[in-house]
Each structure stands twice: as C-alpha cells, then as structure tokens.
Amino acid sequence: MSSTSRHPQPKSQEEAALERDLSLGQLVLERSQTATIATKTAEDIKQEELLRRAAEKRNNNDNIGDVPAPAVVRRPYANTRKKAPDTATTTAVSTNTTEDDDQRQKDELALLSIVAKRSSAASREEADLAKKQILLNPGNPGDYDYDVSEKVDANPIEDNPMEYDNETGRPSSKHSLPPGSLTPGAYSGAVGANYEAVKPVRLDLLGTSSHHPGEEEEARARAEQQKQGVITNEEAQQQPTESIIPLEEKQKPSRNRKLIAAAAMGCLLLVVIIILAIVIPLSVGGGKEESPPSLENTQELSIDKALLPNAPNSTWDSIQDNLDSPQYKAYNWLTLDPSLHLYETWQKEQRFALATFYYAFNGPKWRFKDPLTQNEWLSYETNECEWGVYLPKTTDNHHVICNDDDIVRLISVTEQGGLKGSVPLELSLLGSLQGLDLSDNVLQTNLTNLLPIIHMPEWFQSLEAIHCTNCRLEGSLPPELWDWTNLRVLWLQENSLTGTISTAIQQLSRLRALELFDNKLSGPIPSEVGLVTSLKNLGLRLNSFTSAPSELGLLTNLVDLGLGDNEMSHPGFSSELAKLTNLRHLNLVNLNRKGTNDNSEHALTIPTEVGLMAALEVLDAERNGWMGAIPSEIGNLSRLTDLHLRRNRLSNTMPTELGRMSALETLYLTNNQFTGSIPSELGQITSLHALLFVDNSFQKHFPLELCQRDFSELLTDWCESRDECCIGN
Predict the structure, then answer these.
(1) Transmembrane region positions (predicted)?
(2) Which of 62, 246, 452, 716 has a C-alpha 20 to 30 A away from that of 509?
(3) Are 620 and 645 in contact (CB under 8 A)?
C-alpha cells in the first residue's frame, strides 16, 4: 500500500467518479452532522451506526482496509474546517471493483438521505443564521462555510433524487457541478438540496474583498495535473494557508454597527423628548391655543399708511424707527393676516390696536392662572371679540368684549401672570372703548408710567372706566388724572398710592364710583368731594385721612360710603350723614385707628337723625367709643339687616323700638354697657338669627318670645345657646 502511495497508478473514469462522489458525500455528511447535531434523534443515530458497521464488514471481507465514517465533531460554526478524504484510503478503494460497489453506493446514498431528512428538520432560524454568517463573516480560503438556501425542500433527495449516468457513473447533466466546484465552500445548501456554485469571497476587517480570481484557475490546473498523474493526490489537496480569523473577530464590525445604530436611536429619542418638553408647556390650557407668529428676525417692512389712516404720527415713527416696538410687531402681524383684504378699515385698525396692546403688555409671556383659559390673542382664525375667552364661555366672559356690531367696548385682562407694560396710545383707534380693566396684575409701577395716555384725555373721549385693583401701584395720584372729565368709574383700591386727593376732583362731574380704599392716602378729605354729586360709591376706608367734611352730606345719590379705619381726629357720626337718604351701606368702623379721645367735649353719640336714613341696610360702626343710648328713632330703619355697634361705650337700656326693624338679621352689641332686660319685642323679628350680647350688664333673663326662634349665633353673658338660655322659661 505504501508503494501505491509513492507511485500512484492512473485511475479509470469510474474510479475517479467514485472518488469524487465519496468525497462529496463525506463533506456533505460532516457539514450536516455539525449543523444538525442538536436535532439528531436516537433512532437516527442507531440506524446510522448499523449502516456504518455493515460498510466496515464488507470492507474487511474484501481486504480493502477501513474506510472510517465521518466523525461527528462539535466545533465552532465559523472554524469548522472541511478536510479532504484520506488519499491512501481512497486509492485502495479505487483499486477494487468488486461486485459490492453498487451496494456500497446505495448504502452511502441511504446515509445521505438520512442526513438530508435530519437537516431539513432543522429550524429556519439556524438556516438564516448560517446564511448571515457566510455573507457577513466569510473565513479564510479553505474555511468557507456553506450558504443555506432561503427555500429548502422538505425531503430534497427523495423528492429530487440524484441521477447518475449509466456509462460514466457520474451525476447526470442536470446535477453536474460547475468547474471549480470541488473547492471547499462551493456548494449552496446545508445538505446539497440545491447544488449551486458560489464564489468564495472573504472580506477583511476593513470591509475590502480578499477574493482573487486566480485561485479558481489554479484549482482547475491542479485538478488537471492530478488527472494526468503529474502530481500526487497529497499535492493536489494542498492549499495556501492563511491565518484563521475567529468568528468573534469577524463579528466585531457587525456588533460595532449595531452599537452605533443603537446610540443613534437613543440620541434621536432624547432630541424628541427635549422638543416635547419645550413645546408642551407652551400649550398650557384645556382649549385651543395659538401662538402669534415669531417676529424676531423680521425684515424691514414696507409701510403703507393707507392701511391705518387714523393712526397717530407717533405710531408710524415707532414702526419705522424701532423694530422692537409693540407698534412694529403689531403692524407686521397685521400685514401677515391672510384675510386682511376682507376687512374694512375700522376692523383693521381695531385688530391693530388690540395687537399693539398685546405686545405692549408682554403678551407672548402671559401665564394663565386658570387652566381652562384659552389664549386666543392674535389668532387669525378667531374674531378679535373672542380673544382671551374663559371657559365655560358665557356672555362677557373673555378679555375683549364687543357690542352687537363687533366693536370693542371693554378690554379686561385680569389675573394674568406675566402682564407688564404701559397702555399704548394706539388704543385711541378704538373709538368706542369704554372700559379698561387690568386688575389683579403685578404691574409694580405708578399711574404715570402705566397710563402715558393720561396727558392726552382728548384722544380717549369714550373711555369711562379705569380699573386697576390690586396692581401694586405706587406713587401719588397724578394731577392730570382729574382732567379725564368723562370718567365715570375709577377703581384704584388695594394698592400703595400715597399723597392726597386733589381739590380738582370736582372736575369729574360725571364720576359715579371712586374706590381708593386700602391705600396710603393721607390728609383731610377735601370738601370739593361734596361737589361731585353724581357719586354713588365712595370708598375711602383703610387709609390715613384725618377728617371728613360735612359736605359729604351733599352726596344725596350715595349708595355706599366707607370711611372706616382712618385717623379721624373727630370720629363721630355726623348728623350731616343723615341726609344721605339713599344710602344703603355705611361703614364707620374704627374711624380713629390711633385711639379714642376720652374728653367729654369730644363725647360721641348716635344722632337721632339716623332714623331718617330709611334706605339704610347695613350700619357698621364698631370700635369708635360712642357713648349714650341708642336713639329710639333707629326703629324707623325698616330695611336694616345688620346693626353692628360692638366695642363702643353705649349704655342705658335697649329701646323696644328695635322690634320694628322687621328685616333685621344680625344684632351685635358686644362690649358695651347696656343694662336692663333684653326687649321681648325682638321676638317679633322673624328674620333675626344672630344675637351677640356678651360683656354687658343685662338681666339674666331671656325672653320667651326669642325661645321660639332658631339662631345661628346666640351669645350672652350667662348662656351660649337657645336651649341653655331658655331653661326655666
């Protein structure tokens, strides 16, 4: 056998064909066993072992030598190398042409059928994985893995058995392999289901191809030399060796690409979250919210004065000279309105005036306190009479209020976080504007800065009401304020205004309501106030006024008068006030916050003229140090609901005429010096539900008539409830 190896004899065509078939079978078997070792069943292994033993027995009987069955070896997929059949064994087999060759071929084909069945049962995932490894990570020459077809027949050999040529013993033409197919890795399909030549191409770590077309031609030349006997089988099997790249190294580029892709997706997701975090807070509110167009990078505008023919000259100066001015921004917004050509001139001016107001008071930074508030200012799609609508939408429940002809008559932007600025002159374009309400905003300014228009009342002939309650206004009342003779309502309460009330107040002959309470105003209340006879509401409480003129008695139209919590040097109940026959609410609480004068010459009493105030509903005169008795004429106040005289020095008995005040609901006489009994006539007042008589000197007897009433408040020096007070009655 050794001589045969050193001096190979020429082979017949049948022997060469048989050698190639055996080599092919061994390669396919080894590959299929490696790929499908996990799917073997006990029955398959047993059947395979029986076939192998039968083949060994026949070989031993013929003295041919052992032909070892392909070993089942577990190797890493990418490093599984395909070894050529042993040359010596193949030569020994080829020299023997006994009658068992046909049987041996049948056994080998049966073995291949078993392998094919087992391989076809492998999962599609393993097949896909093998294909991806071939395409992405091919090995060195000689290490190429087999590609796996996308479609594998259920039983490729039984459904499409290999046919052999009867004369040559080779596969028929439809199964013939192309030139170079003997190169390892030249087959497609894990079990040879579809034999398809695949050119081995290897990519190095940089992604460049390491395939050389000359390798295929060299393989063909070696096969031809072997056939002619020029070289031995061992020499024919030799291939150039290269370093084997492990699968882990081959997969590094793929893993890197996956990591890069994951990082990119993470960055994209982070950007989306940041954008949402910025955009969502800008749409706070339950309704539609549309932000005005951005004007930061606006180019110089083409000015058309015909667009706003009634605009003052200062407006055009601001538009042309100051790109950051409210006028410029409003004009730019107006010219971008797609429906501008549909508006009449008055509506163009109206929308422009409101837009200027919006920008003048820092509109883009307004923060709505009420989550149900809609910020629709500067919406092209919304009528300006519905800008700043509060939900639920009801009559006059929005910032801009118009009449039936859609003409603005009131701007009321209250409790608006972020609102700061000055009233622009462009509001004069609103020829029917009657009221401006900026209450409950933190303006922190003075009236002169808030109302630069105060110097030109002639531009605002229609403006009748200015409301700025709780605006944190400082400074004094500017003298120009009294030139607004058309004013009917001036509400500036709950601020920090200082100074005095000018005698020029008499010029406001149409003024109906003047509310200045809870400020820091001082000095005497000017007697000229009595000349503003149109007044119905006069609120001067919680200041530091030192006196009240008797001319207040001339304000016969007064309905509400508040003089309490001041520093009046003579905190009395002037009989002149009794002339206010239309007065409903009178507040005289703590007229002198600095204390009461105990001198008898300054002794204060309730005048009997109080009975003339027939319309009076509330008399609150606590903490004044008044003395004496309650005049019986007080019983004439049939509309009085609340009589509060706590913390005075009133004495004597309570007049029985109190029983005639049929509307009385609360009677507070705590901390006085009353004596005698509680009048039983109080039991005739069916509306009475609160009695406070503590800290007096009443007799400890509660009238039976009062025991039939239900009280929400009942407190005397000896009992604290009706049941307790009525024990024994």
Answers:
(1) 259-284
(2) 452
(3) no
Helices 13-36 and 101-120 cross at an angle (nearest 10°) of: 30
Tell me the C-alpha to C-alpha distance, in Å, between residue 701 and each of 40, 678, 718: 111, 7, 9
Query: Residues 390, 395, 396, 402: is their CA dihedral positive or negative?
Result: positive
Summarize pLDDT for 120-139 with one digit per residue, the tens: 544 455 545 544 454 444 44
Residue 460, judged by CB atoms within 10 A of its CB (0-12, 13-18, 19+), counts as buried
Q: At what angle do helices 101-120 and 42-61 cross, to 10 degrees?
A: 160
Q: pTM higher than 0.85 for the full model?
A: no
Cβ partners under 8 Å of residue 390, min gap 6: 370, 372, 373, 374, 397, 398
DSSP annotation of 428 reads G
pLDDT digits (tens, 9 = 90+) for 260-289: 777 888 778 887 787 776 655 544 433 344
Q: Is the pLDDT of residue 483 over 50?
A: yes
The answer to whether residue 486 scores a pLDDT higher than 60 is yes
Beta strands across the sheet bearing 697-698: 627-628, 649-652, 673-676, 697-698
Residue 82 pLDDT > 80, yes or no?
Answer: no
Helix (H) or strand (E) holding 8: none
How many angstroms separate the CA atoms of 254 and 234, rounded? 38
Which of the four pLDDT bands, split at 50, 70 and 90, describes residue 318?
A: very high
**From CA 487, how far away is CA 451, in angstroms rounded?**
14
My answer on whether omega of the bond before 392 falls inside 30° of 0, hence cis, is yes
φ/ψ region of 415 (left if φ > 0, alpha if ψ in -120 to 50, else beta) reads: left
Which residues fall within 8 angstroms of residue 224, CB to CB, at 6 or more apart?
Answer: none
Q: Are 410 and 434 in contact (CB under 8 A)?
A: yes
